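Write out the 3D structure for:
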Amino acid sequence: MAAPKRGRSASAQSKPGRALALILIAIVALTGGMFLSGHTTPRLGIDLAGGTSITLEAKADQGSAINKANMDTAVEIMNRRVNGLGVSEAEVQTQGDRNIIVNIPKGTNSKEARDQVGTTAKLYFRPVLAQEATGGAAATSPSPSASGSSTASPSPSASKSGSTGEKATSSSSPSASATSQGRAVTDALKADSTPSASASASSSASPSAPATGGTDTSSAQAKLQAQYTALDCSKKAQRTTAGEGAKPADTTLGCGEISGVWYKYLLGPAAVDGTEVKKAQAVFDTQTAAGWQVTMTFNGKGSKKFAAITGQLAKNTQPQNEFGIVLDGEVVSSPYVQNSITGGSAQISGSFTQDEAQNLANMLSYGALPLSFQEQSVTTVTAALGGDQLHAGLLAGAIGLLLVVVYLVAYYRGLSLVAMASLLVSGILTYVLMALLGPAIGFALNLPAVCGAIVAIGITADSFIVYFERIRDEIREGRSLRPAVERAWPRARRTILVSDFVSFLAAAVLFTVTVGKVQGFAFTLGLTTVLDVVVVFFFTKPLMTLLARRKFFASGSKWSGLDPKSLGAKPPLRRTRRSGPVETKEA
């Protein structure tokens, strides 16, 4: 039984170069990827590099009360919008009883983040009663793009069959006269005021419908018609106030952009609330030519409402068979319906780019805030203080590392070379991964994250110490270095894995239950703990196996840190051959 064991041990000792070559290839590949990406330094957080701070003030909207529950809900949704994984270090927190502060670190797309945060009104699905291109480009602009004229349908095959050209023909209608357009709007308003508004909108909006007199139109309808006629969505001042103050049950106005051309919409009462969208995500359809799509799943109440409104809209002609997805008064999409959509899910398809599909999915997922918010101030945070803090943090890390090195040299002597080489490899891997994770997942290195990296120095050194002490224990038992290195590894390996597992579990729990800067600390601690296992298994152990073959260490030099005499080793273990049977004693 002894021979096979010696054979396995010899085999394990003869191939440490493979593990060292593997980790070397990984370092070279990651470093090359870092330089190719152009991101050669980690992205710094707002406390180190500065950034943008946005102050938002809550406004009571449609009767919603400004209370702690609604403010906490708003903070949670905004945090998911701008923070993604939570390691980008964008902070969202309340200030007082009606303000929310959003801190966005330098290096983040601040304009996109401001759009995500500033677009805070409620999300509604409203039937389209009328639609028209506005501005000087209306008569010469190209037909609306597929991203603005997508098709909502219950299946990918039905989505593919939708023709975007139909909408472009009917919605732009530059040849229609002002009289026929005004008559269509009047009839749409009149139909909308009746119980069967959605069902009759198609016929009432026909150019052949009889004109309605002033006595047949209420003053509110006449005012709304005048506002619709005068609305020019190509002008920012007008489109920002379109539909302002409208309640969900009101007929209102809205603006939406299609292929660079602004369109004005006359929208009916909200049929589905954004809070009734359970989930929305951008997906790429590989089975059909639909490309990027946005899939929606509604809750039970929303499913019934959506099935009812799409069933009514499917009976109409364009644009009355469209529903507008309205967020903060802007029509972000207006897909048309071909048939009733049941089952609680739907797809919005068209010639979306990946960014367009993802942005629409984000709006559908996170658009339903309990309150509306007004941007009060946008300030730039200077990086001067952050530079001093970063300098202090790096200095503290350098002092800590120096103390660890001094201890290792004083106590382990030659073995300290193994520990320092392992720390160097771990540091290179940590730096490269942090630089790559910045553009990949939005990771930002803040002061707590720097603290996590400093703590990791101690965790990594602790793993080396455990292994070195196990080797020393074997030498004290009288074994030579080469078998001591191999016999000590299984015992040290178990201890290292248990210790790192506990550290990683603590980091994972901390990352899950906290937000903001504390997550940066937890993320860095977890990352460096995983790297510690990789370095110990693929670098420290193979390197120790190779050094055990060198005379300086194998002979137990006084400066190697493995001198049997100074360790108080027993006499060398010798194998003895039994000369005869051993007598057993009776109890």
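The CA atoms of residues 276 and 301 lie 7 Å apart.
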